[in-house]
Amino acid sequence: MESWNIRAIINAQSMGLFDWIWSLENPETGQVRAWAASSATGEVHALTLDENQTPQTQSTLWIGTTEAPYPFADMVTLHHAGQDWTLMSSGTTGAVSLARETGSGRLQMEWRLEDPQGHPLTLSQMVVIPTSGTPLLLATPASAAAKLRLYRLDAGLQVATLQDVEKDTPKAILAGVSDLIRLSIGTQEFVVSSSSSEDGLSSFVVTETDLELRDTLGPKDGLWINGLEDITALSVGGQWFIAGVSAASNTLSAIRLNPMGAMFVTDIALDDQTTRFAGAMALDSFEAAGRSFIVTGGTDAGLSLFELLPGGQLYHHQSLAQSADWDIGHILSLTAVVIGDELQVLMAGADGSGVAQLVLPLGNLGDLVQGSGQSDTLSGAGQDDLLMGLWGDDQIAGNAGDDTLIAGPGQDTLTGGAGADVFVFTADGQTDRITDFQPGLDRVNLDDWGMVYDISALTLTSTSWGGRIIWRNERIDLYLENGARVDIDMWEPDDFLF
């Protein structure tokens, strides 16, 4: 996989200090818009996004002023009757303002959402569910009340009629809700709520008129986290997952949601010296080449990129530390958008005005090829492929490209081929083999081996045919591409990922 880089800080001198960034793809035109908002000034900038280009500011909407700021509690987008809308809840009054896109992403304030009696709604976190009729709106109240409310919006998006209320109980996590997301699984609509104060999630099935609690997941259920600030939904291998970041525990979690709404922890990644998501407050997900990825960042002066593998395992591809080119401080908000053959990540930081744009080329991103659980032969297609062996004695060949080859349980043989490849090994007590290692170019990932944090913990040997990497009952037989013996002095810390 290629590396990402900073393209620009957009209008840093003329923009404010932003804490909200969001994007929307028009389902009819495929055009992607982005917006950046500042609670300090109440300004909302509309940005146009194009491949290989720096985003351009098309218009600015002022909701507040520096004397009377507009702290945003939440923002959600809605496509209804051929029109794009943004709903914005106030962090002070809870009032929900509706803005209509009038062209080139420009937002025009229209009205505030009311109940049937003409009273302004006061809400905090929100999520919209499109239906065959008018949309549904799920939201938490602006007050401290731990509830989730279901509303039906009218055709004009001016009046919201209450349909159902779900209260916080020992079986539901609705206190301190930090985010709400929706998922469609089969014919059912689900909403998942995250709580930063109760360290967990609750799932609900949503009908036209009702909310029904399906499951709750927290530390007592194996979700060993502290806080839960932001969540996103993504699909892998025909299954749905929730990914969430926790600032206090410095963790990224993956949770599977089955068609009944039950949730299961599949992986928890802890920030370490190779990653940049400590104190994470924001994340987003995207799909490219049929593969699902997560971007996240927080107080760790950088950004991390993970891939969610079939089964729900988190795989860390790369992290990028902030530099003088994009020293924006703690990352408060981000959005990840695939445009053409590149990923664009737009970020707002606590210490820098404007919007930072990172780009990751995706033109060489290849397929994800998974084994069957038998003794398989897996081959890459000449791009940056990910080949994932399962049980069995697999033969895995990356061929050309910067490939990731994952050896599952069993005696596996890995051949990277041309390119900078990463060989990933499972702790299984079996002997695996690399047939063509290129020192200084390829890398060996031993993260799954457990408490191995440094090259000094390994036993590295030289043989007549190559060399060995040994730790406890784990062993890798390693052959160099040129067929020479392995000189143990050739090893450098950068040859390994722990």
From TrEMBL:
Example of a GO MF term? calcium ion binding
Instruction: Write out the GO cellular component annotations.
Output: extracellular space
A Pfam family hit: HemolysinCabind
State the source organism's domain of life.
Answer: Bacteria
**Which parts of the sequence belong to the Peptidase M10 serralysin C-terminal domain?**
389-448
Which keywords appear in this protein's UniProt record, sorted alphabetically? Repeat, Secreted
| Location(s) in or outside the cell | Secreted
Necessary cofactors: Ca(2+)
Q: Which InterPro entries match?
A: Hemolysin-typ_Ca-bd_CS (IPR018511), Hemolysn_Ca-bd (IPR001343), Peptidase_M10B_C (IPR013858), Serralysin-like_metalloprot_C (IPR011049)
Q: What is the name listed in the Swiss-Prot or TrEMBL entry for this protein?
A: Peptidase M10 serralysin C-terminal domain-containing protein
